[in-house]
Specification:
By secondary structure, this protein is α+β, with helices and mostly antiparallel strands. The chain has a single domain, classed as Jelly Rolls (Sandwich). The chain is built from 6 helices and 13 strands. Helix 1 crosses helix 5. The radius of gyration is 18 Å and the shape is globular. The termini are close together.
């Protein structure tokens, strides 16, 4: 038992069972108030003036994104890239023992964080943010096995109004024929079998400091930010040591960094 009266091993076992069943789990208050303050300060500094590299809403061309850089909102960032290289605070979060212990349990072995993608601060701006359609993150990755886990840390509150993630519980184990996906590997929403899948979706409400762990086969989507405040989330993706990036692909561009094994209780 720890000082909160909870048995950490039991908590982790419950979380692991949920992760296996649903393809995601939310760990509440994983970042401390101090960590959140420091990370939010660093992100605010990096947004104004913008410290690249960044991906812009126009780059993805998703519904609602400005269509060119000279249009109003054309310079709206969608994510600040290379979060791991942006300072010790980001590295300390990515490699911290609370994440490591959970990820080892979910992925079944020692784990490493990728520096290649989803190594970013997602920014969802009022006015010019776009809508992300239903997809699995494996569309971005090339690994031996489609078994990666992303950790999405809410730096502020996230709900349906400001464009929180929606997920389809259990969709990480569904067999989905290629024909159910469009050219860009998004679910084709007009197909009845996809409509039935999407009807099972739920929004993931997060408080600042909560972390969503989700499987790279989990279907997820997100709406636009309809509030007046930017939404910020720090996202890293992990793989087990024996699940290697395929040489020559974008997933092998930078080395992964091993998460140290530290017992945290
Ligand atoms: O916040 C969003 O719009 C969704 C982001 C997302 O699903 C992704 O980048 O894979």
């Amino acid at each position: 038992m720890n000082e909160t009266g909870r048995d950490p091993a039991r908590t982790r076992a419950i979380e692991a069972a949920r992760f296996e069943r649903d393809g995601f789990v939310v760990a509440r208050s994983l970042a401390s108030a101090d960590e959140l303050l420091r990370l939010n300060d660093l992100v605010s500094d990096a947004l104004d003036p913008l410290v690249g590299p960044a991906e812009f809403e126009v780059d993805v061309g998703y519904p609602g994104a400005p269509s060119n850089r000279d249009d109003p909102g054309g310079s709206t960032p969608r994510r600040l890239l290379n979060a791991f290289a942006r300072g010790r605070e980001f590295q300390a979060w990515a490699l911290n023992a609370h994440l490591g212990a959970r990820l080892r349990q979910f992925l079944g072995s020692d784990v490493a964080v990728s520096q290649c993608h989803h190594n970013c601060i997602m920014t969802k701006h009022p006015g010019f943010s776009s809508l992300t359609m239903w997809h699995q993150d494996n569309r971005y990755w090339s690994f031996d096995r489609e078994e990666l886990t992303s950790v999405w840390l809410a730096l502020g509150r996230e709900d349906a109004r400001n464009g929180a993630l929606h997920v389809i519980p259990g969709s990480h184990v569904e067999a989905i024929d290629r024909g159910r996906l469009d050219r860009d590997l998004f679910l084709r929403p007009e197909l009845p079998e996809n409509k039935a899948l999407i009807d099972r979706a739920t929004v993931v409400d997060l408080e600042p400091g909560d972390a969503l762990f989700f499987h790279s086969r989990l279907f997820h989507a997100a709406g636009r930010n309809q509030t007046d405040d930017v939404k910020l989330s720090l996202v890293f993706t992990y793989h087990s040591d024996d699940n290697r990036p395929i040489p020559g692909t974008r997933s092998s561009r930078y080395p992964s960094i091993g998460v140290p094994i530290v017992e945290f209780e």
